[in-house]
Amino acid sequence: MASRADSTINIAPCAGADISQCIEIASAAFQHNAPFFDIYFPKHDTTGREQAVERLHKWFTSDPDAQFLKAERNGRIMGFAIWTHMLSSKNPSPSDLKDVEDVDAVWGKLGEDGEKEKRFVEQVWYSYVQPRRAAVFAAPEEKGTMVLEVLAVHPESQRLGLGEKLTRWGCEKADENGLEAVVEATPAGKRCYERCGFRTYIDQMKFDVEEEFNERRLPDISFMLRKRTE
Description:
- Helices cover about 35% and strands about 20% of the residues.
- The chain is α+β, with helices and mostly antiparallel strands.
- The protein contains seven helices and seven strands; from the N terminus they run E-H-H-H-E-E-H-H-E-H-E-H-E-E.
- The chain has helices spanning about 20-30, 35-40, 50-60, 105, 115-140, 160-175, 190-195; strands at about 10-15, 65-75, 75-85, 145-155, 180-185, 200, 220-225.
C-alpha cells in the first residue's frame, strides 16, 4: 500500500488538454454524493458531460487569477484543484449567477420547467458565495484571499495524499503573500483541510431557497478558513 507521502505524486499546472480528464475525475470522485457539484454541473456523468467540459475549459482560459492544478500519480492525472486569488476590487464570485454563467443555456432547458430550474440554481449559488465574498471583502484590498474552489481526487487514488498536496500548494502561496485561505468543504474533505490548517467557521452553511424547493437536496457544506501567518 502506498504511503500518505507517496513520492510518485507530482503537482503541476493543468494544460488545456487536461480539462476533459478533470471533469471525468470530478464526476468519478463526487458521483452523486456532492449536491452542489450535481447542481452546478447537471448530468455531469451522462448527457451533460460535454457541456461540463466546455464550461470548465472556458473557466480555464478566461480567468487569469485561477490556477488549475493536476496531481499526477505514476504519470497519470488522478486529481485536480482550482485555486483562485480573489481581490475585492474584481467583484469576486458575483452574487448573481448570470454574471458568471449562461444560465439559460445550462439550466434553462432542464426538466419540464426550465425557469424553475434557473431560479433554484440561482438561489443556491447566492447562498453559496456569501461567506466567501465576506472573507474576500474583509481582507486588505491590495492583498485578497486564496480560495480553493474545486478539489477532486479519483477514487482509485484517494487516501494517498493527492488532495493534501493540492491543498498545501495554495496554502503555501497564501503564506508567501500573507493571505488567508478559504474553502467550502464537503464532509469528505474536512479532515484533509484541517490537516492543512483550515478551521470551521460555519459548520453547516444555510441555503435560502423558496418554499417550492424545500424538498430538493441541498448542499451539505462547511465554510472553512485558514488564517494568514504572521
